[in-house]
Amino acid sequence: MKKVLSVVLAVLMLAAIAAVPVFADDAIAVTTADEFLAMESGKSYYLANDIDFGGKVFDTYLIKGENYVVDLDGKGHTLKNFSFKSDNASGDLAVFQQFASGTIKNINFGSKDAHISYVLNDPNDNKSFAFLVASTKGEETPRIENVHIFADMEINYTANLDARLSCGGFIAYARNYTIVKSSMNGKIAIKNNGADCTKWRNAGGFIGSDKYDKTLKFVGTIEDCVNNANVSLIGCAKEGRVAGFVAYSDKETNNIKNCINNGAITLETSAGTGHIAGIFACAKPGKDAVIDGCRNNGKIVYNCKNAEDAKTGTIAGGIIGFAQRGAITVKNCINAVEIKTGAAYNGEIVAFTAESGVTVEQSGNKTSSEIGGSEITPDPKPDPNPSTGDHSLVIIALAAVLSISGALCAVVVRRGKENN
């Protein structure tokens, strides 16, 4: 009996150990703003506490470096009390310049009551502006998990009106990536003051521009995420694209699953082209895209100043705006608001499909009229205040081990007495 007891206890202890969160043995604790700014590529870090930047204003990246590789676990802590402000920015701008490989997880940037300000005035042409990551790069797939951004992003143009733009809450210019259980909160507002922009601009709550490479065949995945940010592009004369999650993609594959847009999505243009949607504005995958179990609750607003006969390329959708290329599947999605805008084409699931080079399969989707205005509970939102790493699972597991061990010991003692 004692041998049996020893084996059972050993198994239970292994089960308890399996419940312990595993972090890299060489992970370095970050306790101050200076330590955060000094993080080096190729290493593992964790936040030991909330990090207060003391009101510092940045006009460049917090973390510089191309091909940056890092494993960063925030353990539920918050980076706070900093902002971005730049006039005539000549380079990309974000917390991380480039994220090539690794994982960023369990971090809050700002809070519900203290959003981080991000203001750019007249940035230069063809740049990438995001809150978290300006661009991803390389064959690896960097992962972002349980990250919650509370930010008010504003980009204002008065002089550089011919500047192209990729702007996203999480990533501006994306290759491979995976984003799960994360949220964008606040706003992304792009304004052209005084005249119309004459070059394309992409603005997404999560991703600005998803890019294609015929050799590397990039894949972008977003799952179990929520966009609560209002995203707007005002004053555009050529191919403005705005969405709650992905503004534009021509990468190999896009997967967007169980995601919810609650933000208002707005495009104002004098152009003959422009795409807008709650989830995905312009879907042009090299191979395929799957939009599964997503929901749009956000108001879709498209103000087109063109005459009726001059706005044939203007498109507004609840889930997808323009299905332009590839094999696209849209299933089990809900658009909860009526889509009635100034665009030439309006649709609650997919607004417009190109005449050739694309197939669209739809199943199990519901429009605002089909749900009859009844309240449908959306999938649970990611927790904006994740656990601070108190190892409650470990405590529960060990408590279970001790409880079962005590019971087994009692059995052994009782049987021993009976044998005597």
Question: How would you explain this protein's 3D organization?
Answer:
- The chain is mainly beta.
- The strands form two sheets. The chain has a 28-stranded parallel beta sheet that branches.
- Helix 2 links the parallel strand 1 and strand 2.
- The protein is globular and about 60 Å long.
- About 12% of the residues have low confidence.
Descriptive key words:
420 residues, mainly beta, 28-stranded parallel beta sheet, seven-stranded parallel beta sheet, 3 helices, 35 strands, 46% strand
In short:
With 420 residues, this protein is mostly beta strands.
Topology:
Layout: H1 2-18, E1 28-30, H2 33-37, E2 43-47, E3 51-58, E4 68-87, E5 96-109, E6 116-121, E7 127-130, E8 133-136, E9 143-157, E10 165-168, E11 171-174, E12 177-180, E13 183-192, E14 201-204, E15 207-210, E16 219-223, E17 226-227, E18 230-236, E19 240-243, E20 246-249, E21 253-257, E22 260-261, E23 265-269, E24 273-277, E25 280-283, E26 288-292, E27 295-296, E28 300-304, E29 313-317, E30 320-323, E31 326-331, E32 334-335, E33 345-347, E34 350-353, E35 358-363, H3 392-419
Parallel strand pairs: 1-2, 2-4, 3-4, 4-5, 4-6, 5-8, 5-9, 6-9, 7-10, 8-11, 9-12, 9-13, 10-14, 11-15, 12-16, 13-17, 13-18, 14-19, 15-20, 16-21, 17-22, 18-23, 19-24, 20-25, 21-26, 22-27, 23-28, 24-29, 25-30, 26-31, 27-32, 29-33, 30-34, 31-35
Q: Helix count, per DSSP?
A: 3
Uncertain regions: pLDDT < 50 for 5+ in a row?
7-23, 374-382, 386-402, 408-414
SS-based class: mainly beta
| Mean pLDDT, all residues | 85
Helix content: 10-25%
Main β-sheet, in a few words? 28 strands, parallel
- What's the end-to-end separation, in Å? 15 Å
Tell me the radius of gyration.
25 Å
From the spread of the alpha carbons, the general shape counts as globular
User: What amount of the residues lies in strands?
Assistant: over 45%
Count of DSSP strands:
35
